[in-house]
Amino acid sequence: MARTVPALEMQAVTRRFPARERGALPFTAIERLSFHVAPGEFVALVGPSGCGKSTVLNLVSGLDRPSEGQVFLSGEEVTGPSSHVGFMLQKDLLLPWRSIRRNVEFGLEARGLSAAERAARIERELRRCRLTDYAERYPHQLSGGQRQRAALARTLAIEPSLVLLDEPFSALDAQTKILLQRSFAQTISASGVTTLLITHDLNEAVAMADRILVMSERPGRIVEEIAVGLPDRDNPIARQSMPRAQELVRHLLHALHLDEAVDA
Amino acid sequence: MSGAVESAAAPKPSRAFGGARRDWAGSLMLPAATLSVAVVVLLAWQFLPPAFGVPKYVIPTVTDLVAEMGRMWADEDLAQHVVSTAVWSVVGFVLGGLFGAVFGYLLGLSPLWEKVLSPYLLGLQIAPKVAFAPLFIMWFGYNAMPKLLVTVLIVFFPILVNVLQSMRVADRDLVNLARAYSMSRAQVFWKVLFPSSMPSLMAGLRIGATLAVIGITVGEVVGSQVGLGYLIVYGQGAANTAMVFNAIILLTVIGIAMYWAVAAIEARVLHYIPRAVA
Ligand SMILES: Nc1ncnc2c1ncn2[C@@H]1O[C@H](COP(=O)(O)OP(=O)(O)OP(=O)(O)O)[C@@H](O)[C@H]1O
Ligand SMILES: [Mg+2]
């Protein structure tokens, strides 16, 4: 079988930030980082705090440029923000002065779409994220989980070929988190979009992803790659109770040296 | 299943059931209390100074003020003065607010110019603007120009500073989101930066609305033949204390009206901001 072009490919990417003090060495956030994500794949990126995960997101979304190396989206080098990438952060980043419907519309406003096409996409995503009844509300009138769903609807409305999720569930309470993970898993698997999920939560990574990339301490590199190989990608709750899932989590704890850490 | 989450997580209605009765009571009690304070103050004003032997040319009684107000209306063409002050206050406020906002946004968009100009802006901001009034009269003569300029200057700075500050603290992640959606600089400004600055702009305008009346009054006091500020000077010359009091009261009324107008606009513009539950 011919090798398909990866949806996302990082080739030996290094990102240095200028030193804060004069004369000090530049600060290397990630060094010679390489990985790829196949079309339709759901990949989770885990690693210790400050290892450069959000830096990866900025490089892939085109908001930041690598110091060395290249980033490719479906074979094309990233030189700036691309209309094929959607991203979501821990913060919902909804515009408080817009209704949910108008927030979902936000990403569509920089593209030449007809009014009918826009309206159709907004309706579709609102339905997909089960927000139709909340379309005319304002963000402050929604719960945290609903707001994150609205952010997902906005992200999917641009029909991205790649979605970047930077700890989208970490600001939520435990229950909402579990339900929202499932809601996202269903939505993402129904839309078939390629996804890169950045997370601290190892259970979440195992429950949601097809493949997990483990990053080292700064400067971040990929130190381990794990194929999850579990069924039920659209049902993280079912997945979490499988024995293999628990085994994988233990394995990850070990890979991140969390099982032998003495102190936080 | 998800319906259960929704109802559990759905926002609470803004008024709880238990609050309804208290609100009803509050809706009557509060204005009543405010009104009683006014009545007490007016009564004290009417009867206390005479009781303590304070002469009327120092503190005129309330009835004196009302009588004088009627006389001013009939003999001094009061309406013309009130209208003049009010109109120029509004004009000065609108112009000062417009310039302040435009400069604030321009400087907010170009950090370089902000750095270059900031010492001068600070200097101008600290300089007492009312002190410019005599200078403007020397330059432009006894017309509306000096009072308008003083007002524009006074109103300008708080609005400029507020807008500039809001541009500095705008959420970088929101701006990045807009950039990631391939929005142009102009789109980022109009869709993200400008709307996020609204609360600060409105706060600046509220301050500006009250300052505008001060600016116009100073202009009228220093050199004008019309307006409530002029009536103050005129009343002072005639040793007519009641007239001075009345002019001050009317100036305050104009200021309050402008403040309310801005607050009403603000309530409409910022409708999306959740109000703190009292
Ligand atoms: N613009 C910047 N300038 C200088 N240093 C930066 C910048 N952005 C990130 N860094 C540094 O690079 C390192 C990696 O940051 P990054 O935000 O990617 O970490 P992270 O893995 O996302 O961490 P966390 O899990 O806590 O979110 C950090 O040490 C951070 O201080
Ligand atoms: Mg991060």
UniProtKB/TrEMBL annotation, chain A:
Keywords in UniProt for this one? Answer: ATP-binding, Nucleotide-binding, Transport
Q: Name one GO molecular function term.
A: ATP binding
Q: Which residues form the ABC transporter domain?
A: 8-242
Q: Which SUPFAM superfamilies match?
A: P-loop containing nucleoside triphosphate hydrolases (SSF52540)
- InterPro entries for this protein: AAA+_ATPase, ABC_transporter-like_ATP-bd, ABC_transporter-like_CS, ABC_transporter_ATP-bind, P-loop_NTPase
Q: Name one Pfam family in it.
A: ABC_tran
Q: Which domain of life is it from?
A: Bacteria
Q: Does the keyword Transport apply?
A: yes
The similarity comment for this entry is: Belongs to the ABC transporter superfamily.
The record, for PANTHER family, names: ALIPHATIC SULFONATES IMPORT ATP-BINDING PROTEIN SSUB, TAURINE IMPORT ATP-BINDING PROTEIN-RELATED
> Per its record, how is this protein called by name?
ABC transporter ATP-binding protein
Q: Which organism is it from?
A: Falsiroseomonas bella
From TrEMBL, chain B:
Q: Which GO cellular component terms are attached?
A: plasma membrane
Q: Where would you find the membrane-spanning parts of this chain?
A: 24-48, 86-108, 120-142, 148-167, 211-232, 244-265
A single GO BP: transmembrane transport
ABC transmembrane type-1 domain residues are 82-262
A Pfam family per the record: BPD_transp_1
Membrane-topology annotation of the record? Multi-pass membrane protein
Q: Which InterPro entries match?
A: MetI-like, MetI-like_sf
Using the record for this protein, list the coiled-coil segments as residue ranges, or answer none: none
List locations, semicolon-separated.
Cell membrane
On whether Membrane is a keyword of this UniProt record, the answer is yes
Which terms are listed as keywords in the entry?
Cell membrane, Membrane, Transmembrane, Transmembrane helix, Transport
Q: Which family does it belong to?
A: Belongs to the binding-protein-dependent transport system permease family.
Q: How is this protein named in the record?
A: ABC transporter permease
- Organism field: Falsiroseomonas bella
